[in-house]
Amino acid sequence: MAERRSTVFLLLGMLVWVAAGFAGALIAAVLMGIGGGLLSNLAGPRFSSTPTDVVYVLVPAWVFQGILLLAALRQGRRADGGDWRTGLGAGPVVNKRRVMLLCALMLVWLTGFILLTSAIPALRDFVKSVTPDVLAGGGDDGVGMIFLRVGLVAVLAPVSEELFFRGWLWEALRRRGHAMGMTACLTATPWLLLHGIDAPGRILVLIPAAVIISLARYYGGGVRASLAVHMTNNGAAVLIQTLAVLTGHGE
């Protein structure tokens, strides 16, 4: 009973941090709107400072992911007396060959899924409806926009999400005696729900990725393994979407 109660409080704490991330993102969006309006009033009508819709997504997303990253580092440090690496399960990868195979499996899945969407119009329309705007770039994107998009999707999001869910939360659940299967479910489920807030159908698309990333965490013996697979997935997705835009197939 004590173990169950401890797990409930742990999951509630996780939700509190996620809520703090959303609050920070909302504050960032509000400040952007206020700041843009003030600059327009000061500089006159010739100065256009209203952020685009994509910027309103990207900047708050950076804030949200930054808060998750800080939360993971803080909780990991508290969990192991100041050593955040142990608290996050950030030790060396113990089975590099299996992790490399899982990275390859992620690429195979991503490639196969793209081929399916190309062959099935209904599936293609569904994927477009649940694909986040941060993945869709334009040919006229400036350097700043490219940095925001690629830095978020290919670097910050995988790092913060892995350290938070399959780092701190995974280690905390294991210390409470939960089996690997239960630990994988309790870390993958909130990760999936987080990505499905604005488009619940996205959860279906990401379930295979959640399974492969969880397997990497298990077989690799630490969060570095799942991070490698997660970054492989996100980096490939950004590259494919960018090529689609440049070749005129991203519309």
Number of helices, where a helix is a run of at least 4 consecutive DSSP H or I residues: 9
SSE run: HHHHHHHHH
Biggest beta sheet attributes: none
User: Mean pLDDT score, rounded?
Assistant: 88
Number of DSSP E strands = 0
Task: Map the helices and strands.
Layout lengths: L1 H42 L9 H27 L4 H4 L8 H24 L1 H10 L12 H33 L4 H16 L6 H19 L2 H24 L5
Helix pairs in contact: 1-2, 2-6, 4-5, 4-8, 4-9, 6-7, 6-9, 7-8, 8-9
Task: Walk me through the structure.
By secondary structure, the chain is mainly alpha-helical. The protein has one domain. The chain has helices at 2-43, 53-79, 84-87, 96-119, 121-130, 143-175, 180-195, 202-220, 223-246. The model has no long low-confidence stretch (mean pLDDT 88).
What's this, in brief?
By secondary structure, the protein is an all-alpha fold.
Which features does this protein show?
251 residues; mainly alpha; globular
